Amino acid sequence: MDDTAPEWARGIGRIAVLTGAGISTDSGIPDYRGPDGVWTRAPEDVDVFRYANFVADPAVRARFWRRYLHHPAWRAEPNPGHRALAALECSGIALRILTQNIDGLHQRAGSTARKVLELHGSMHEVVCLGCSARTPTARILDRVAAGEADPSCPDCGGILKLGVVLFGQYLDADTIGQAEKIAKASQLLLAVGTSLQVEPVASLCRVAVEAGAHLVIVNRDPTPYDRLATEVIREPIGTALPRITAMLAA
Ligand code: ZN
Known about the structure:
9 helices, alpha/beta, SIR2/SIRT2 'Small Domain', three-stranded antiparallel β-sheet
């Protein structure tokens, strides 16, 4: 037991970690609302990520696929933040990761796939809106690279969509229900690299606190949930997470 560790880090057996775009920026994937964020730099791109536009307009889908063909996430590697969480799981603590990220870097870092709940889906899978068939995204992007602007489902001809939640789409009810259960059952909710501005995910913080958990927020900027937190940490994630997970594992 580390005597210098804060009270919230002592004797914790069940942890939920809520991660957002901030944990992946060290891997070269831009966040959304930061100074270099996707929506900050190109606010008009929001239209491409609106479900109604995507479904209605082949030109929007073509822009979407072109955007993903060159997405930095395809070349990204997990960073020390992802690896610290994977190592914490190995220490024997019951750890669940609830991620808003679609990049799959937690699993690549070694976190057990079934312990990572992808709240906004995964960019590694494409779903057909007609027959619900799922295909690895790489296979569809190969078709885009070969010249198909708006590839359709080879089985039913339906519209193909990346397996992620677009603006105007609801989160999967089962997934968010499972996330709430995990938040309620945890003794500590660690919110990392998320601006906590997107509901219903952000309110998982309140769910955890009302169930008696400590809330610790690691984020560069203030969030609407800071006042509920036991501690707010502004240190960069790449150094904060290895330090925190070492305390928790001690
Ligand atoms: Zn289909």
